[in-house]
């Protein structure tokens, strides 16, 4: 038999080389090559087409039971999950350090334990005393959560195997250590091996397991990308540490949609639920200030009103203008600026442009184009937008204003919060007494703002 060759496999893209390199030649990721035994060479002797057993195939319409759901009682959390945790499933929750992952999960664990579920909380980052202190501060001191500070997956599985658990938190997967793998905790192979064992435990035992994942600078969950493929649900916990607001977003969900969000505010007593996010994001709004526009964003089926703020500074010619954007896509900003310049005759090329979405909110809704364009025009011309107006619509490169989904939902939310006008695409219907002004092209809106005919 041929000697098994060693090879180095990139844990990010899966490409293999026979020599170790610091950077994967295929995907360009650094430090992702891990030594693995090479796959058996294809030969007549090692042929997968022989020696297997036939698997029974089933039909789609056979009887099947819906998996059991477990509501943690924090409505915003349950909503983001699409109706609570699923028994026998694995959930990965990622987020920046200090954003509140441990707090949120401890609160969920406490609620579930108080509701009579068997809950185990394993912290690899904090001592049990630290977690206990936090629980007491959160008013959960009397919740029957079984707590341990541990990092050995073997020990954790032995502990879990000796009892039945409904809900298990592993905080965090990067601190876990499998003694089958000879590398430090947090390395891709360790994270993958530890996660694999913990997920298998969840599937076998029927417990819902939640893995906390660290996030790298570019916002992806540290460790192999395969971690996201291994779990059933991936949640992202977002927000700016300097702001109170936190948004829990489903990025992947095998048991539900990925378009619902949960909104929280970090306070003295941990994370509070925010059932009316619009009023929260608009509390400190600067009215009658040029560059401020209210945009009705849609998160799943849920409208959230946010403030778009723009600032432009005209530079003496020759200097290179800065472009900075927080909470929106910078490529999209460049596109809106180009459309304003090329289709509406605004000379913004030489101006510095700053764009900010208030409250640490991150906008992904394409309907924000028109709101951003309006904020830029308002800042550039130093003319405020009427304070009782909301603005939304998608822009095309030709400067057309495109219709967007669910305009009635957006209008209804705005009406509820006291807005009386909406600027948007043509063809919107009046809702709840909100006056609508439709625009076919961005140029028409710019003319209105600048008082041009
Ligand atoms: P934590 O849950 O430890 O974050 P993560 O696990 O994502 O790293 O959150 C820690 C932050 O939250 C910390 O900076 C303090 C703050 N915090 C509050 O403001 N109020 C509270 O009641 C708690 C428990 C934490
Ligand atoms: Mg933590």
Concise account of the structure shown:
The chain is α/β, with parallel strands linked by helices and 453 residues long. It has 11 helices and 23 strands. The mean pLDDT is 88.
Strand order of the largest sheet: 8-7-9-10-6-11-12-13-14
Number of helix segments?
A: 11
Question: What is the fourth-level CATH superfamily of the largest domain?
Answer: P-loop containing nucleotide triphosphate hydrolases
**Helix share of residues?**
25-40%
* Strand segment tally: 23
CA-based shape: globular
CATH architecture of the largest domain: 3-Layer(aba) Sandwich
What's the assembly state of these chains?
single chain
Radius of gyration: 26 Å
What fraction strand? 25-35%
Number of domains: 3
Question: Tags for this entry?
Answer:
453 residues; alpha/beta; Rossmann fold; Ribosomal Protein S5, domain 2; 3 domains; nine-stranded mixed beta sheet; four-stranded mixed beta sheet; binds thymidine-5'-diphosphate; binds magnesium ion; DNA-binding; ATP-binding; hydrolase activity
